[in-house]
Design a protein that fits this description.
2 copies of one chain form a homodimer. Chain A has an 8-stranded mixed β-sheet with strand order 1-2-4-3-5-6-7-8, with helices on both faces. Chain A has 2 domains: 303 residues, Alpha/Beta hydrolase fold, catalytic domain (Rossmann fold, 3-Layer(aba) Sandwich); 98 residues, Serine carboxypeptidase S28, SKS domain (Four Helix Bundle (Hemerythrin (Met), subunit A)). Chain A is globular and about 80 Å long. In chain A, helix 11 crosses helix 14 and helix 11 packs across helix 15. Chain A contains 20 helices and 8 strands. Chain A is α/β, with parallel strands linked by helices. Chains A and B meet through helix 8, helix 18, helix 19 and helix 20 of A and helix 8, helix 18, helix 19 and helix 20 of B.
Chain lengths: 534, 534
């Protein structure tokens, strides 16, 4: 299914904004979707690339929204009124029966029952499966659940992923957004062993059954919803636990970006295309800039020149710092390339508008300044957050997503994925061997059309084709009830974010299509249920 | 689907046989199915009941054939010619990333490739998923794979379940059938933690991918086959790993005997019915005998009297020993109630034939003697085997199957299932709390028709309705490709055992129906594959 009808021209428009302050996050949010307009524009992505892991391309973050907003620049979001926070005494190790496996930890979940039609009506449950970050931020940003709950009289539940936020087995030292507990966890050889996707899915299974039991809602159908890594979890959850979830909405879930299913160039080829589409001049400026950065860096006082040109907060130690910073910026602008501001368009307007600049680097800086305006200086070193630390561990244990650049049509320098380097880096960092084939062993992915055309049902894979991660997504219907809903101009997880009045027609239609499909699942379910009970 | 057409009268017929000697097992078997005629008759079941675990009903063993044959009375079966034994360096812990999780163990698997059509023809693979016992015995007894391999040009593979046989992480001390390693494993708090069904399924996933990789058989479809507990594993494997197994034949798999899905009386009500159908007189004799045993036991020298009457090898310590022995005998006779000898019929012919005996206990003994003829004495104490020890652990960790007797229509005394007693027994024995709800959390089972009617495909649930475990089986088609194939007169796992010339028509038909269904899966698969490749 293609939700896109009109080729919206608003890619070139953008509105000015200012940088998020802590105040922005600590203030009480009302649940008016329009309030998040500003938030979408703040895409200060800190992507782990060569600065940390040598020269190989590293995995761009897999969050519905820019995780740095939640982890670095913000204190904990206050859960809006109407939402109640609970903790479940969760099994630490679902797949072993060792003395320490009987340990438990407190898993956070947040419920809003104001729209719920109740157990007696078998009213449904919308369950958001948390991904690699604290859950409270998601509550205010993921509009899909709350916006559609009234129509379906659904209970709305947000489940926090183990180890993030307040669901760290070591407790949330220094508060839910503090990195202390996370840092300690991933250093702790025993505790970090339980930090993986299969355990997280089993948490969700146990916790959702607990919630149904507590509410006597045995026959309430559950729809699981997730974005990015959380979208992968949602689709896997429906496949592994069909007896718990009736269906899944998996937004921007690159479930095919494992092993060699998706070509390694997939991600950056879309980043490149996004910029090429925004402006041919912008694209070629960026493409030229990498050699120019190296040329300047190699000159006497070259790094100082670069530091000054790019207004770095501290002097550059090497040219990689700058190149990584820009690489990450372009990637995240493409990934979170959402209307109405379209970050790629903003960068390109900066670059194209620097008509006085003859130097390619001045033009590139103008792009940066347009994307992240109003800053006295730019911090080129990656910050740390629960997300950045936790996701490193997940990548180094099992979430091995081979992204590289081999093609010279890319606007980035060549940087082929190096599996050995990945392993070496992980061994150096954590002392463990990654299991790069485990994801496809446990979850599948190869020949997905053939496998799932006669197996499974009730999954929506939604994607925006401007999202670089859509290259690893399911973009065609697999069967009449495993469906792909995609938009040509959409970006990462756009469909499940809160809607805006300014949303283009194609985005409104994508969401409507998804609701229609889910409604169809419910109709069949209730017909079945009625038939069984009478 | 009901494979049964004629109501075969051979229930009353039986042939004499002698007890298996070690020689029987150590001799070289040819692959003539007829040779196993004798074996089927040797159902010396050692079921763990009250003798070990107090007064609660315990879980009757879940093996395709009597496991005591393999564990207690026999040395290791010699793998027949044409079969090659291999070992795979298997991951000990698939769901954790702790230093010790990177440990591996040697998992045994046995391959016969003489019928295989080869990777270039995408010829299929029949994979037998080992259950709670050494795999080598299964190779000679499970005829379904080898008998059907020529027709499908299939590779035949038998995978050993972790901890059994030569696949014990502690090694196979004292040989593959020795209980030493198993005893040590279940006492070892660390190592036994990895001894569970989810880990075993993940073993099979990894190992089957390894075999396909080794043989370059990427497009060879795999059918997994299992019986009893192994049948549960087969159906769960298809549900959890549809990308690895195209389909599953789950023979006599009581996947619904968890939590409260199946009434606790299910098992023993079928045992009762089997005896009632064999002979009304036999049934009422057995029904009377329990009180009579208690009455005699309470008299002066009563236990001595009972010991003499029942020719026990050593004097009885209490009446439970005798009652447990008889309970187990009736249960296993019903469970393995296979043609041509039909053990229930043999017991009843003994009882009914004791026309000179006025004492009810003499008649019961005549039943025992008819079932297990030619013995100087009867050993009432349960023997130990890898199976009995290993299965105790599995029951006490997760395979909690609540079997009890509440109804007075049973031919057994009342003995309601006591969940608290189960927990107490397990805590006393292993020091761990069982997780009785984990099986339904991970595998489902509740509302299975509604859940799977629109999810999943290519599973055959086969059952014989005289098998007490069929009470927890799937007995009706769930969808057009999740099918129940049952026979009115069949017993436990009969369909996957080697065929005999004397097999009744309904059994021949059941197997034919299964082959036809599997053939349909292949036809669709190859059509799909052809379509994708051209």
């Amino acid at each position: 299914m293609d939700s896109e009808n009109n080729n919206n021209n608003s890619t070139k428009s953008y509105i000015n904004t200012t940088i998020a302050s802590k105040k922005f996050y600590t203030s009480q949010f009302s649940f008016t979707p329009l309030r998040f307009n500003t938030m979408r524009l703040l895409m200060i992505v800190v992507i782990l690339t060569t600065a940390i892991f040598g020269t190989a391309k590293w995995t761009p973050r897999l969050s519905p929204i820019d995780p740095s907003l939640k982890g670095e620049n913000a204190a904990s979001a206050t859960v809006p009124s109407g939402f109640e926070t609970f903790f479940y005494n969760q099994t630490l190790d679902h797949f072993n029966y060792k003395p320490e496996s009987y340990a438990t930890f407190q898993q956070r979940y947040i419920i809003n029952s104001k729209w719920w039609g109740g157990a007696s009506n078998n009213a449904p449950i919308f369950a958001y499966l948390g991904a690699e970050g604290p859950i409270d931020g998601d509550v205010t940003i993921l509009g899909f659940l709350t916006e559609n709950a009234p129509r379906f009289k659904a209970l709305v539940v947000y489940l926090e992923h183990r180890f993030y936020g307040e669901s760290n087995p070591l407790g949330s030292k220094g508060g839910p957004d503090s990195v202390d507990a996370m840092e300690e966890s991933v250093k702790n050889e025993t505790i970090r062993g339980y930090f993986n996707s299969a355990q997280a899915l089993a948490d969700y299974a146990e916790l959702l059954l607990h919630i149904k039991h507590k509410l006597h809602a045995h026959n309430s159908p559950i729809i699981v919803i997730g974005g990015s890594y959380g979208g992968m979890l949602a689709s896997w959850f429906r496949l592994k636990y069909p007896h718990i979830a009736l269906g899944a909405l998996a937004s921007s879930a690159p479930i095919l970006y494992f092993d060699d299913i998706t070509p390694q160039d997939g991600y950056y080829s879309i980043v490149t295309k996004d910029f090429e589409q925004a402006s041919e001049n912008c694209y070629s400026t960026i493409k030229q800039s990498w050699d120019e950065i190296d040329r300047v860096a190699s000159m006497p006082n070259g790094l100082l020149t670069l530091s000054q040109k790019f207004k770095t907060c501290s002097p550059l130690n090497n040219s990689y710092e700058l190149k990584d910073y820009l690489d990450s910026m372009y990637a995240s602008a493409a990934q979170y390339n959402a209307p109405p501001s379209y970050p790629t368009a903003r960068i390109c307007q900066g670059i194209d508008g620097a008509t006085n600049a003859t130097d390619v680097l001045d033009r590139v800086f103008a792009g940066l300044a347009a994307y992240r305006p109003g800053r006295a200086c730019y911090n080129m070193t990656s910050g740390v957050s629960q997300t950045s630390i936790g996701w490193q561990w997940q990548v180094c244990s099992e979430m091995s997503i081979p992204i590289g650049i081999t093609s010279n049509v890319s606007m980035f320098p060549s940087s082929p994925y190096d599996a050995n380097e990945y392993v070496d880096d992980c061994v150096k960092r954590f002392g463990v061997m990654p299991r790069p084939h485990w994801a496809t062993t446990y979850y599948g992915g190869q020949d997905i059309r053939m496998i799932l055309s006669r197996f499974g049902s009730n999954i929506i894979f939604s994607n925006g084709l401007r999202d670089p991660y859509s290259s690893g997504g399911v973009l065609e219907d697999i069967s009449h009830n495993i469906l792909a809903v995609k938009t040509t101009n959409g970006s990462h997880c756009l469909d499940i974010l809160s809607s805006l009045e300014s949303d283009p027609e194609w985005l409104v239609k994508q969401r409507k299509d998804e609701v229609k499909i889910i409604n169809g699942w419910f109709r069949k379910y209730y017909r079945n249920l009625h038939f069984l009970k009478h």
